[in-house]
């Protein structure tokens, strides 16, 4: 496969955030999940979105991915409004996006190498013979031997499955990558290893990353910035390294996992 087949076109627009959401609102029935979400992610930066269960983190990511249509607001990628794109442009945007799903979402019916190159094969951007070599290269990037490519995902440990899912997310060399709970279900050491790989891979690709996590150690490791979603809005954003001592009582309570604080008081009401 030529690099041409998998390289994303250089699309950075000077002075324009890679991703910009403004006033995004989404309700399901009577439930207003997003109530005016504003987010900016600069190119080559890594944003972590925090928030309680059901606060709308996945809905936010799915809206950027075009899987959920917001009721109001704008979502721009490289200054282009994704909600008003034609299908061709949206498809081209999809080709530049990688995604690591919460549970890995690997297909047990396919060997690892086909999982890694799934999108490239499905879109006929690569031959099967070249996909095998490409998968071995990408597996090496996430610390796995090429021979793992012939195994079924079901034969792998949770940590290895996450590595394969990461390999799949980066295989087409995307310039935007979404990570949904990348360390869930892993022990703390394996979680740190996966975080390290995520940081390395994102940096090597020069990609922009948006992650969802409940794991604060992971948020500090993989995020340049963090944003907290609460009651349908971003109530705080700042350096991920400051989580736990931001001075914002709500964010600090959440990040430190404290029972007492403004979130608890709201739950009691
Ligand atoms: N397709 C849908 N139809 C109806 N309700 C939905 C749909 N998608 C999400 N919701 C609702 O929107 C709310 C936010 O869901 P979302 O999955 O974004 O939460 P989350 O912050 O990612 O939660 P968690 O941390 O538990 O994964 C929830 O109440 C959920 O039930």
Walkthrough of the structure:
It is a single chain. The chain has 269 residues and is of the alpha/beta class. It folds into two domains: 11-96 and 176-268, Rossmann fold (3-Layer(aba) Sandwich); 105-173. The protein is built from eleven helices and ten strands. It has helices at 3-6, 57-65, 87-95, 112-116, 118-122, 128-141, 158-170, 188-205, 216-222, 249-256, 262-268, and strands at residues 19-28, 31-41, 46-50, 72-77, 80-81, 97-100, 176-180, 208-212, 225-230, 233-239. The strands form two sheets. A six-stranded mixed sheet has the order 6-7-8-3-9-10, sandwiched between helices. A four-stranded antiparallel sheet has the order 2-1-4-5, covered by helices on one side. Helix 7 runs parallel beside helix 8 and helix 8 (188-205) packs parallel to helix 9. The protein is globular and about 55 Å long. The protein starts with a helix and ends with a helix. The model is unreliable at 1-5 (pLDDT under 50). The structure holds adenosine-5'-triphosphate. The site of adenosine-5'-triphosphate (ATP) has 11 residues, from strand 2 and helix 2. This is ATP-binding cassette domain-containing protein. InterPro entries: AAA+_ATPase, ABC_transporter-like_ATP-bd, ABC_transporter-like_CS, P-loop_NTPase. Residues 19-256 form the ABC transporter domain. It comes from Dankookia rubra. Pfam families: ABC_tran.
